């Protein structure tokens, strides 16, 4: 049952208002809306008389607001005591559009928004937003515009959800393979995989010995100790049987998903790499990039904080006792309706998973996402698909638009092409092309450094899969995160505030990998770093690795450079005041040739170099006819920091 006010609500009328407001969102006087109840007492009265929508809104008013100590009900009462009416107003919106996009760009209108306004647009406050929903097999359209999202099955282990996942995969196989997405062909299997077996059997570890096949990979958060992992002591026994009951929920679920999708082999890091063998870890971690790049699919346990959380759960139902209906038009029959579903505060979408899910905070998961051609994402309430042709959601939300999730095609287009075209290094790039690759690489470093590691020494290994692929194209030497070909650019990393070094040595101080803090890399274009007669020259370098992975952890590293210096104008304490070996140098940028060979000349910035006493001047000489001093500096254990600070 609906009251007279709510009964006048219909989608066709709301769409006409939305179209009229398109591109006019900031015009207070010309903005159109549907008027709902003017006073809170009117809303309460309608709810008491049996209006389901008003009752839903009233109950929402009784909840305490985030960041406020009062309920909406109390706040609305206080407003009306000051002769400020509630003035509820209603709009329909497309969740995949930004506010500056036009009505015509909307493919699915799926949000019913309630606002209370005191006067005009700028005083409007969104009161509540509800999801409009329809059954997937009964979509509703007005002209070519779809109304509402699909109702999802919140049992992620249901046959319905497995059918959806298989449908996405089949579409990619038939329509995408060989064009933009890699083909579904057999490739050399990883050294070890899990043979998932049949439904009533236990899986087992399979040593592949160079065989070819197809496999699925798992991307997940460890989240602490895992009881059953591959070790030197159980290597033989796990080749006979891996008891399902001994595995954490994420692993059990990944096995069930692999079976349901019709595949035999599954790769899970802790069960396919010998965890207590430093030698095996070094070898296999170098191959990890190819494991994900060549997998037919990656299963992403996006919402699981730890291995024990699982993916195939049934989310507890949203607390709702009623599901009000909204008519498509004023003359709609009982079948021409959409359901007013849950509040968006209960909702989940792929953008949210990309921005704030547990998996997205994990450093290892960065290269797993970048290198995987297809990903089946498991959230809290639904499943999602990602391939090189776009995104899909079980609820049918559009995969494009201003608020769509991050798209690799837009951020790392060149590197994506290198990854999925299986470039073997034979493709040659111009200098400008290589600069663009380095430009994307530095953005990758910035994003990667926002993520956390449970094992700090994995900072370089967890990025090595990407680096191994890029090295074939960039060439030169890889120096603990720094490309020798672009060492001037790559050394321009900084931290807005103090960046603590890790207690245990894992990288030289001139590498961004030395800290667990977020870092910035300055992406100057080629003209800002054009060659000069005084360019800094990398004379030599030395890297001692900690494992067999040439792009992994290092024991020790140093570089020797030939560069110019700036005149010291200020010496001050840095860090711990009791430590007299820490100091910083602030140099006067103006009037000196300075570090123009290392840094771009820009009077808007001033350089800061921080070092410790271990930085040793190997050779000092004055070039004939020049004022600046040319020096060769060995940065071995030196705590070198370079950054730009705005004056």
From TrEMBL:
Q: Which residues form the Heterokaryon incompatibility domain?
A: 215-368
Q: Which Pfam families match?
A: HET
Name the source's superkingdom.
Eukaryota
Q: What is this protein called?
A: Heterokaryon incompatibility domain-containing protein
Organism (species):
Botrytis tulipae
């Amino acid at each position: 049952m609906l009251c007279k006010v709510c009964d006048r609500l219909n989608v066709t009328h709301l769409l006409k208002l939305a179209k009229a407001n398109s591109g006019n969102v900031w015009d207070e006087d010309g903005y159109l809306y549907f008027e709902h109840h003017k006073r809170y007492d009117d809303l309460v009265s309608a709810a008491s008389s049996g209006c389901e929508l008003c009752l839903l809104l009233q109950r929402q008013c009784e909840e305490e607001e985030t960041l406020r100590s009062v309920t909406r009900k109390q706040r609305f009462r206080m407003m009306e005591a000051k002769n400020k009416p509630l003035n509820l107003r209603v709009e329909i919106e497309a969740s995949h559009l930004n506010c500056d996009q036009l009505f015509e760009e909307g493919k699915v209108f799926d949000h019913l928004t309630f606002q209370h306004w005191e006067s005009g647009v700028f005083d409007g406050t969104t009161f509540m937003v509800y999801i409009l929903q329809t059954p997937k097999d009964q979509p509703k359209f007005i002209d070519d515009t779809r109304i509402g999202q699909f109702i999802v099955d919140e049992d992620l282990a249901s046959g319905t959800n497995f059918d959806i996942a298989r449908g996405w995969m089949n579409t990619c196989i038939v329509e995408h393979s060989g064009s933009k997405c890699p083909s579904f062909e057999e490739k050399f299997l990883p050294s070890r995989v899990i043979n998932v077996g049949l439904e009533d059997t236990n899986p087992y570890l399979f040593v592949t010995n160079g065989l070819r096949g197809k496999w699925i990979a798992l991307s997940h958060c460890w989240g602490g100790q895992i009881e059953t992992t591959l070790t030197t002591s159980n290597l033989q026994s796990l080749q006979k049987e891996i008891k399902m009951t001994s595995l954490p929920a994420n692993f059990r679920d990944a096995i069930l998903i692999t079976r349901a999708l019709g595949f035999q082999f599954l790769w899970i890091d802790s069960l396919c790499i010998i965890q207590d063998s430093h030698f095996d870890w070094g070898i296999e971690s170098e191959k990890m990039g190819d494991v994900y790049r060549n997998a037919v699919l990656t299963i992403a346990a996006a919402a699981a904080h730890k291995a024990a959380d699982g993916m195939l759960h049934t989310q507890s139902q949203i607390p709702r006792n009623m599901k009000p209906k909204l008519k498509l038009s004023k003359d709609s029959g009982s079948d021409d309706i959409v359901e007013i579903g849950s509040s968006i505060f209960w909702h989940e979408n792929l953008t949210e998973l990309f921005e704030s899910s547990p998996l997205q905070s994990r450093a290892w998961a960065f290269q797993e996402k970048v290198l995987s051609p297809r990903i089946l994402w498991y959230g809290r309430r639904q499943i999602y698909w990602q391939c090189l042709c776009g995104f899909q959601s079980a609820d049918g939300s559009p995969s494009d638009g201003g608020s769509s999730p991050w798209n690799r095609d837009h951020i790392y287009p060149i590197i994506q092409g290198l990854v999925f075209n299986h470039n073997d290094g034979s493709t040659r790039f111009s200098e400008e092309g290589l600069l663009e690759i380095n430009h994307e690489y530095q953005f990758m470093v910035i994003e990667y450094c926002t993520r956390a590691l449970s094992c700090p020494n994995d900072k370089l290994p967890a990025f090595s899969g990407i680096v191994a692929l890029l090295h074939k194209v960039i060439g030169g030497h890889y120096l603990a995160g720094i490309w020798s070909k672009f060492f001037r650019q790559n050394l321009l990393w900084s931290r807005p505030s103090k960046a603590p070094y890790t207690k245990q040595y894992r990288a030289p101080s001139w590498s961004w990998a030395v800290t667990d803090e977020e870092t910035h890399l300055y992406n100057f274009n080629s003209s800002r770093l054009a060659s000069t007669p005084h360019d800094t020259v990398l004379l030599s370098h030395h890297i001692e690795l900690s494992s067999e992975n040439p792009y992994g952890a290092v024991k020790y590293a140093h570089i020797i450079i030939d560069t110019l210096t700036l005149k010291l104008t200020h010496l001050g304490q840095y860090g711990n005041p009791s430590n007299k070996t820490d100091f910083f140098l602030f140099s006067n940028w103006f009037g000196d040739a300075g570090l123009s060979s290392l840094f771009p000349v820009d009077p808007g910035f001033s350089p800061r170099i921080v070092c410790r006493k271990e930085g040793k001047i190997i050779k000092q000489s004055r070039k004939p006819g020049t004022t600046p001093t040319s020096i060769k500096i060995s940065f071995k254990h030196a705590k070198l920091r370079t950054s730009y600070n705005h004056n």
